[in-house]
Every structure is written in structure tokens, then in C-alpha cells.
Amino acid sequence: MDDKRVAVGWDTRTWSRFHHIWLRDHCRCSECFHPTTKQRLVNTFEIPPDLQPLHVESKVDGLQVTWPSTTPHVSFYPWSWLRRNSYDPPIQNTETEKILWGSKIEQSPPTVKFEEVMTEEGPGLFKWLQNIDKFGFCFVSDVPVTPEATEKLAERVGFIRETQYGKFWEFTSDLSKGDTAYTTLALGAHTDNTYFTDPCGLQLFHLLSHTDGTGGATLLVDGFYVASLVKELHPEMYDLLSRVPIPAHAAGEHESLYRPSPPSGYPVLGHDLVTGELTQVRWNNDDRSVMRKLEAGLVEDWYNAIRTWHSCLTSPDSEYWIQLTPGTAVIINNHRVLHGRSAFNGKRRMCGAYIGMDEFQSKLAVLSEKFVHNIDLRVPEEKTHQPTRSVWSPYL
Amino acid sequence: MDDKRVAVGWDTRTWSRFHHIWLRDHCRCSECFHPTTKQRLVNTFEIPPDLQPLHVESKVDGLQVTWPSTTPHVSFYPWSWLRRNSYDPPIQNTETEKILWGSKIEQSPPTVKFEEVMTEEGPGLFKWLQNIDKFGFCFVSDVPVTPEATEKLAERVGFIRETQYGKFWEFTSDLSKGDTAYTTLALGAHTDNTYFTDPCGLQLFHLLSHTDGTGGATLLVDGFYVASLVKELHPEMYDLLSRVPIPAHAAGEHESLYRPSPPSGYPVLGHDLVTGELTQVRWNNDDRSVMRKLEAGLVEDWYNAIRTWHSCLTSPDSEYWIQLTPGTAVIINNHRVLHGRSAFNGKRRMCGAYIGMDEFQSKLAVLSEKFVHNIDLRVPEEKTHQPTRSVWSPYL
């Protein structure tokens, strides 16, 4: 301990330091943190900047710190919680492993059965969501060939996200919605909703019938895989794709005119501000608006970068083509996996839904709390007494 | 014209230059840009990087460029469109003026009447949305004191955004939802949904009744005004508030656990990547998660920065307090204006709704197309022939 920080030794060589003000602000006692709502109650702004503990004591389960005040305040921090939240230095936590894939995924694409997913309280739903998390997509087989069953499937993840196109949708190729998706044309690999501030997180779709015609194969491309190729081969292009924001619009209908906020838009590749990890791909060249804010000196480089991106995206090594048939639905992480289709003739009836990324992540977290036993959600003494989520949950 | 660019002179001293590849990519003829869906049809990636025009000709209304190909392709760009989209150099366009305010706004807060807003095809709705755009909030007076009328009012902007709390909501102080909002406690100025990737854009609320008690005044604070104070007085703190992402959670209910994506979160102050303009305030200290990714060297500075932010936010000069009464609803831009309330006793019945920022901006754009005549949406010759949105719209 010095006048600013408490040091905690994990072994003879590894230490973490925690600032006094940080510790006081993160007290999780029921006076400082509401045990039900999990909201902060302590007034952060009244903590004296030069606060010093009265005592610091190592207990079996964690660190106990006594703070000066009219009645001394006692805070307790489990060792596992401190270690997981070490910021000085940051200690690498194992995040979910993402599996990047190219065309060879066709040999064993992630698939679950409808029945598994629909079983109440079963781990089937968790398996489905874990597949989406790892691969960015997952098939669901043996789905009853009806919009009703497909809608129920979507709602296993969370509520369906409403857009200008409605909630659960069904469509045929009639250009009813002012977007080329509603035609019979081929569509290159793209993500949906580049014209939204927060593009829909998951997209589920299910081919209900295709009569009097052929074509319409489904294309899936792992945007994270393609990004890794571009990063390896052309780091300066990767940098431009990560920096230059692209404006976009959905303006095919009279009564709406969608653009992201702010309207300058977002880069093709989005990253976590702290870790630098790639977190989002946004790509639909058809919906791109006027590049009115492109830096003049970058025009040629930027066109070269998107040409290279397009070329990696459309390479046979990246493209996974599959002819879907009624009964097999596919769900896609629209922040990672791009989709498209080949042209078709005849009449196709499709249905599907969007689900928000936040709803997906929420459900995945709730199921992880339930099924992952090493997730260390609860400190030992709480296990039997506390039915609610622990204040030490790694998600808080 | 040189081998890369066409130069356009606006007057003897002002010029814009447009790269050939940019011009070809932005051709708006019906072969290159779908006139109904407003989506790009030209294959950007097949444009030769060294493309040169065959001819460039100044017409009365705009620039005509002929491109080499088996059958030469002719593109036309109206002068007004070129000028508006000049990127080399960028020409400043007049954006909507925001009016920043402090406590003195109480002398004439923006207000519209329910009847105005509800009149079909009338400009009342546009006036309401313009007020929200300029001030970040607007009162609506003479609202029938029912949830039904309030819901209809909300739907004038767009569809109501669904969240884990439902769609249109009504509540009393019963902690039914695992959040302190559902108590009788005072709530400091905050924005809602810091735990979402895209916090709701607008929040409408309406006090339907308050019986057997007093208190519960409404607090509004212009986050953009407070940010301007901090920027002026403490630029280094403004910088930290703009750079350090804050994780957040909504974890008071068993069946959901919301966090933004990526979970590192977002800074208090969000800016347009290109213009540097302040575009979003996110602030709820109660919902802040563990600051596990804070840079060790910034801990003290960051706590100082949020203390200063809090102090400016809670200064009497910033706070606008108003005692709402049944019949007056208020709508807030939740990306700009913070809200709170004083403690109360007795029973309060409130109702309201969230609306997405994208839905608000879409409606505002559609009404601007309709009511703003100098918006230059159409080139002259199109005015009579074309009922649909122009391909030269400034929104595309």
C-alpha cells in the first residue's frame, strides 16, 4: 500500500494495484450498491480525492478495507473479483473464442435441431446461441415449414426488433418495399442495415417455398475472416477500412428516410475502443450515400482499399454457398457474417426476423449464468443464501 | 481537369475538384443508381482506377461527363449537387442550428399544443420535431390525460421502440422492474439506457396523476450546454470524457442482463468521426459497471473529470426544474438532454414511450422534404415530372 493504492500479490511475481478511490467507488455492500437493481448507491462525487483506508486486511476469501467516516465503513472485495477486474496491470481474461472460417466450413457447418432449441429450460438454446457467438451463424434443422414456427424460433432469443419493414416478415419477390432485396436479382455479400445507427444484430431467415424456378442459393461470408486476410496482406488498407466512415441511406419508401446517427456514418470495420479487437463489420456498397466527407488525399487509396476488400470478400476461398431448402432456417450475426444470394426465377416465399444485438447478448449472458459453472458468478458463501444474481457477477 | 480530377469553378476564387473515380462511382443515371430504391447499381469495383473521361462539358444546369466504354456512358451532375457535396475542399453546409440552454430556459421553454401535433398533414408535427432538434426537448400542452392519447402522440414520431420494459409503458412507484426509476427516490440528471449499444433517441413522458403526496419535480439539463462549459473551463477533462469508454449494465431482472456492444462501452461524450462535432451524451453513474479497463495512469484524472462534469451538471445555472402537471407531456432527446426528478411521496402514475433516434431522424427528414422549400431536393426539370424523392436529395 502507498498513499494512493493498495497492492495485491497473486503469487511471488504477479501483483495488481488498486487505487483507493477506485476501491471506494466499487464497494458492493448493500449501502453502496443496490443488491436487487445492481445500481450504484454510493455518491462517487463525494469521495475525497485523497481518501486513505483506515485498515486493509487480507481475509481468506478477499480483501477487507475499512474507510474513515463518522462511522467507519467496511468494504469487502473477493480475491477472484479483484483478479478478474485488475486494471493495473490488466490481466488477460479468456474471452469467448471466435472461430474464423472460409468456404471449407461447408464440411461441417454449425447446426442445431429445432426441437433442441425449443425445449424449455434445456441447454439446446444455449448451444444455439454459443454457435452463433463462435461462428457468427448457425443452421436450425427440422423447422416446421410455417411462419408461425419460425417466429417462435426467433423469439427464443428475444423479442423481434421492429424496423420500417415491420417485425416478423414474410415476403415474395414483388419489390413491395423499395429495396432490391425484394427482387429476383443476385445480391452480393453484404450486411443489412448499414443505414441504421445500430444495425440489427441477428437475422433469421427461412425459405418456406420455391416454386416454378431455380437459383437463389444462399451466400455466407465470415467478415472477421476476410478482415483478418486484409489485415495480414494490406495493413494500410485495413487501417483505412477502420478509419473512413461511410454514410448510408434507406430511401426507397416515401414515408421514411433512414440514415445512421451521426450521418457521417461508420467505418467498414469497427473496433473496441480499449482492446482494439474487431467487433463489427458494416458493408453494403449499394446503400452507400455520397462520399461527401472523404479526405481529398485519401480518395484513391480508399477506392483501392474497398476494391481489395471486395476482392477478398468475393474470393472462392471466402464464399460459402448453400442451397437452402424448406425446413432449414439460418441465423446470422449481422455484425460479422455477410450474406447474399444468387439470382433466381420462379416464386420464392421467405420469412424471418431481426433481433437486436443487445437482446442476443443479454440472453447469452443469462444462459451463461445458468449453464456455465466455472463462470464464478457467486462468491462461495452466497451460493446457498442468495437466489438472485450476485453483485460479483463478471457482467457487472 | 488533370489526369485524376475535374475542377469546377464556383466563382473567380472558389474551386472544387472531383476525382474521376469518385464521379463515375457517383453517377445517378438510372443504369447506375436505382431510381426507386435509391441503391447503387454501378459496379464500383469494376471502375478502372485510372479511368479518364472522354469529354467533360459545362451545361446550364450541371456538369456532363462522357466515359469511355463500348457504348460511351454519359453522366450528369447538377451544379447545386456538386457544390453541396464538394469534398476537395469541403464547403461548409449550414446544418441545423442547435440552441444550447441553461436554467433560464424556464422563461420560454419550447412548447407545442397537442392539437397542432395531431393534425394530419399539418406543419404542427414538423414544428414539434424541429423544436426537439434545436432544444433537445419540447413540451406538449393540452394532452388528454390518458395513456391512449399519450401513446398516439408518441406514434406521431414513429413506432415505439421495444425494450426489456415493453413498448408503451405506464408505471407507479412499486419497484416492479428492478430499477430505481420505479421507486420514490430522487434521481439525479442522467440519460437512459447507457447499457444499450444505441440508447433510445427520444423519451416521451406524461404524468397522469399524483395523489396523496407532493414532490417529484422534473429536472432537465442540456448535456451539450454542460459539455460546452467543461470544454471551455477544462479542455483536458473534456478530452478524457470523450476518450474513456464506460461499461454499463441493466441487471435488476433475472431474465435479462443488458450491456452495450462492445462491452467496454462508450465515452460520456460522443463525437462525429469526421467533423468532430459533439453528437451524443451518455451519463448514468448509477448504471456504471466495474471500470476494469481504465488505464492505470488515468485513474485519478478520470475521477477528477467525472467529478467536474457532475459539478457542472448539478450547478443551479444548468438545472431546469419544472413541476409537471397532468395534461403536459414532455419529450426529450435522450442523446443530449439529461433528466431526473426530486423525491416524492404519495402515488404517481406516469406513462410514456421510447422512440429510436433513427425513427426520429427519418421523420424529420421526410417532413423537411415536404415543408422546407429551399432544401433543394429536386433539380428544376424534375419538379413537375417526378413524384418520388429525387436522386439528388441532400439526404442520399
Automatic annotation (TrEMBL), chains A, B:
Key words of the record: Carnitine biosynthesis, Dioxygenase, Iron, Metal-binding, Oxidoreductase
Needed cofactors: Fe(2+); L-ascorbate
Domain of life: Eukaryota
Pathway linked to the protein: Amine and polyamine biosynthesis; carnitine biosynthesis
Catalysis: reaction(s): N(6),N(6),N(6)-trimethyl-L-lysine + 2-oxoglutarate + O2 = (3S)-3-hydroxy-N(6),N(6),N(6)-trimethyl-L-lysine + succinate + CO2
GO molecular function, one term: trimethyllysine dioxygenase activity
Segments forming domain TauD/TfdA-like: 107-354
Assigned EC number: 1.14.11.8
Protein purpose: Converts trimethyllysine (TML) into hydroxytrimethyllysine (HTML).
Coiled-coil annotated residue ranges, if any: none
Cellular component, GO, one term: mitochondrion
Biological process per Gene Ontology, one example term: carnitine biosynthetic process
PANTHER family on file: GAMMA-BUTYROBETAINE HYDROXYLASE-RELATED, TRIMETHYLLYSINE DIOXYGENASE, MITOCHONDRIAL
Residue intervals of the Gamma-butyrobetaine hydroxylase-like N-terminal domain: 2-83
Assigned protein family: Belongs to the gamma-BBH/TMLD family.
Enzyme type, top EC level: oxidoreductase
Alphabetized Pfam families for the sequence: GBBH-like_N (PF06155), TauD (PF02668)
Name assigned to this protein: trimethyllysine dioxygenase
The keyword Iron is annotated on this UniProt entry: yes
